[in-house]
Amino acid sequence: MFDIDKTVMLLIDVQGQLAQLMYEREKLFKSLQTFIQGMKILEVPIIWLEQIPENLGHTREEISQHLTDELPIEKFAFSCCSEPAFMDKFEKIGRNQVLLTGIETHICVFQSAYDLINKACKVQVVADCVSSRTKENKEIGIQRIQATGGEISSVEMVFFELMKAARGDKFRQLVKLIK
Q1: How far apart are CA 135 and CA 144, in angstroms?
Q2: Any bridge partners for residue 99, and if so which?
Q3: 3-class state of residue 176 by DSSP
Q4: Which residue of 7, 27, 42, 75 pairs with 97 in a disulfide if CB–CB is 3.0 to 4.6 A?
Q5: pLDDT value of position 179
Q6: How does residue 68 score in pLDDT terms, banded at 50, 70 and 90?
Q7: Average pLDDT of every residue of the chain
Q8: Other CB atoms within 10 Å distance of the CB of residue 10
Q9: How confident is the model at residue 6 (pLDDT cuts 50, 70, 90)?
Q10: CA distances from 121 to 7, 47, 75, 95, 165 (A)
Q11: How far, in Å, CA of 27 to CA of 152, rounded?
């Protein structure tokens, strides 16, 4: 089980035309919007990354509009952990339970999960908040993350796991988000 005080969310590379090519992209974008809003309600830190934005474009506006308090970290490596700017921010936040979202599941999301797990982090891939250009590559990416020691989760599962109980204003706000 993840603990709200130890959790951080990563948003990986939901950018430009590449994002438009994702398997079930509309569902992905809707889930990401809901998830980011929920993380903000729960006050879970978000680290937002973009893969070579001058080539791939910036994060899709329907996603970035919910990230006005954060700035993206530019990356060139597939794994977030190979970028010093990411590692600096990640270490400053000081949390070791990581919720992975973004694209592509079988490349950047998988390689980030692999490296984070090898750094003794607990990792959950939020299955409805990741995708690849094909359904097969999304599924293979999730399977590899699980085989490496990561867990599979979903937007609603994470929300309720972090809340622990059905009470309070934050719970009411989350319920409104998912209805």
Answers
A1: 14
A2: 9, 124
A3: helix
A4: 7
A5: 84
A6: confident
A7: 96
A8: 25
A9: very high
A10: 10, 15, 20, 8, 25
A11: 18
- The SS3 of residue 7 is strand
162 with 42: CB under 8 angstroms? yes
CATH number at residue 31: 3.40.50.850
Tokens representing residue 34 in the block: 């809901």
Q: Using CA atoms, how far apart are residues 8 and 95, in angstroms rounded to an integer?
A: 6
Query: Global pTM?
Result: 0.95
Mean pLDDT across 116-139? 98
Residue type present at position 76: F
The dihedral sign for the CA sequence 70, 89, 101, 2: negative
What value does the mean pLDDT take over residues 36-63? 94
Residue 139 neighbours by CB under 8 Å, 6+ apart: none
DSSP state of 120: T
How sure is the predictor about 57, in pLDDT bands with cuts at 50, 70 and 90? Answer: confident
How many domains does the structure of the chain reveal? 1
Which one-letter amino acid corresponds to residue 42? L
Owning domain of residue 80: 4-178
Helix axes 135-148, 110-118, angle to 10 degrees: 0
Residue (of 156, 66, 75, 139) closest to 104 by Cα position? 139
Contacts of residue 178, defined as CB under 8 A and 6 or more positions apart, other chains included, come to: 34, 155, 156, 159
Q: Which amino acid is at 31?
A: S
